[in-house]
């Protein structure tokens, strides 16, 4: 898919591309969280609008709704017109639609701009994941996925902190943070120039007799997407329900949430740096098992008692486990995707991630209201423990299968000698 240096065998612009793709990956967290500090003041500035309370709260989640609807189409478009073209267009739309809230006259028009921002996120995320698959392979790919997860975790602090400072001056200023990715546009031009046209460069995967296209890539991608959605749905209990859990148990919800989510993101960022070494040493299935196990222990800690030490430990464990699972999903998706279908598979995974965020409060809030937080946290822990057991069992079976294939070869060599 890309022109490479004939001497090294690597793209000439590898380092620049890696930095650029890392920076575009952080737009995912910028899209939703950046305006959160400005919401109370933004609602007050539109006090004459009877729907201000509802509309301002929906501004945060509106992009996720667009991503769920658009990401599959964006993935197919990436395969058709080229990933770099779609990424460039997505970043440009991100800048225009995200910053529009700084000057649009009413909440409804701002809401429309937020929905367009979701379209941009769908374009950026699907194209970015597909480009990672095109450019990197093997250890480079797993290392990049770990760095990407760390970059997403740490950039959230920067974006929200910067936006919080601007919100103190005016509720409209945080929207200008969305204009910062305009600095990425010149960095994307070399990627665009080095990407060959899909019609002439896409290498079709060989057809296997008796195997349909769906069984080759769509069914494995859909299975990966379902597992991703379930994991994200459980993980999203932390940002969506932790404030209410703290408030119910007599803690300061505002400061407690900031500290708890800070422990989660910082721990996740540190663990993500070790993703390559862990996945190469244990293998991807066992890495999933470890990630699910840590997340399960985190929710079990939260369910055990409303003590601050257990809350902090639980948040840190959930963050550490998710830092192993999230890049693993992207790795698995790129493994099951034929080169010409990487955009489509990236669209499936992107949809699954954002669908998990949307479904989490809708599905789990009624259960919390009826049975309480401890029951839901225990249910999440039990689900994650079962996923961990299944992952570790798969890893053991696969390792046993490899030994069975190796032993006959060793016996044959011994007989010949």
Question: Can you give a write-up of this model?
Answer:
There is one protein chain. By secondary structure, the protein is mostly helical. It folds into two domains: 1-199, Growth Hormone, Chain: A (Up-down Bundle); 213-417, Growth Hormone, Chain: A (Up-down Bundle). The protein contains 17 helices and no strands. The chain has helices spanning 14-25, 27-33, 39-45, 52-81, 83-99, 107-135, 138-167, 185-194, 198-201, 213-235, 237-248, 253-273, 275-282, 284-304, 308-336, 342-371, 373-416. The longest helix is centred in the C-terminal third of the chain and has 44 residues, at 373-416.
Provide a compact summary of the structure:
With 417 residues, this protein is mostly helical. Helix content is 80%, strand content 0%.
Write the layout of secondary structure elements.
Blueprint: H1 14-25, H2 27-33, H3 39-45, H4 52-81, H5 83-99, H6 107-135, H7 138-167, H8 185-194, H9 198-201, H10 213-235, H11 237-248, H12 253-273, H13 275-282, H14 284-304, H15 308-336, H16 342-371, H17 373-416
Helix pairs in contact: 1-6, 1-7, 2-7, 3-4, 4-5, 4-6, 4-16, 5-6, 5-8, 6-16, 7-12, 7-13, 7-15, 10-15, 10-16, 11-12, 12-15, 13-14, 14-15, 14-17, 15-16, 16-17
């Amino acid at each position: 898919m890309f022109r490479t240096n004939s001497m090294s065998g690597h793209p000439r612009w590898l380092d620049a591309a890696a930095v650029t793709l890392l920076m575009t990956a952080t737009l995912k967290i910028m899209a939703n969280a950046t305006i959160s500090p400005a919401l109370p003041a933004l609602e007050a500035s539109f006090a004459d609008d009877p729907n201000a309370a509802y509309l301002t709260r929906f501004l945060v989640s509106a992009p996720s709704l667009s991503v769920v609807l658009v990401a599959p189409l964006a993935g197919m478009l990436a395969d058709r017109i080229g990933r770099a073209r779609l990424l460039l267009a997505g970043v440009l739309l991100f800048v225009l639609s995200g910053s529009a809230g700084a000057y649009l006259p009413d909440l409804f028009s701002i809401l429309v701009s937020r929905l367009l921002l979701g379209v941009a996120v769908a374009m950026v995320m699907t194209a970015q994941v597909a480009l990672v698959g095109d450019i990197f392979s093997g250890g480079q790919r797993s290392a990049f996925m770990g760095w990407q997860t760390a970059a997403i975790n740490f950039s959230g602090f920067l974006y929200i902190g910067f936006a919080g400072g601007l919100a103190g001056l005016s509720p409209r200023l945080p929207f200008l943070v969305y204009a910062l990715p305009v600095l990425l546009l010149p960095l994307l031009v070399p990627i665009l120039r080095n990407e060959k046209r899909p019609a002439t460069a896409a290498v079709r995967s060989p057809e296997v007799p008796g195997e349909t296209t769906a069984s080759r890539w769509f069914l494995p991608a859909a299975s990966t997407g379902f597992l991703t959605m379930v994991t994200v749905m459980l993980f999203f209990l932390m940002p969506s329900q932790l404030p209410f859990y703290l408030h119910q148990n007599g803690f300061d919800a505002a400061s407690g949430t900031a500290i708890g989510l800070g422990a989660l993101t910082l721990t996740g960022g540190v663990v993500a740096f070790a993703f390559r070494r862990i996945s190469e040493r244990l293998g991807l299935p066992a890495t999933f098992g470890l990630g699910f196990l840590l997340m399960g222990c985190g929710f079990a800690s939260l369910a055990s008692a409303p003590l601050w030490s257990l809350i902090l430990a639980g948040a840190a464990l959930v963050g550490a486990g998710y830092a192993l699972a999230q890049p693993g999903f992207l790795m698995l998706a790129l493994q099951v995707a034929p080169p010409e279908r990487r955009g489509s598979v990236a669209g499936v995974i992107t949809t699954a991630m954002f669908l998990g965020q949307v479904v989490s409060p809708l599905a789990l809030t009624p259960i919390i209201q009826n049975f309480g937080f401890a029951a839901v946290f225990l249910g999440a822990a039990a689900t994650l423990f079962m996923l961990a057991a299944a992952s570790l069992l798969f890893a053991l079976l696969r390792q046993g299968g490899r030994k069975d294939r190796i032993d006959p070869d060793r016996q044959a060599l011994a007989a010949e000698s």
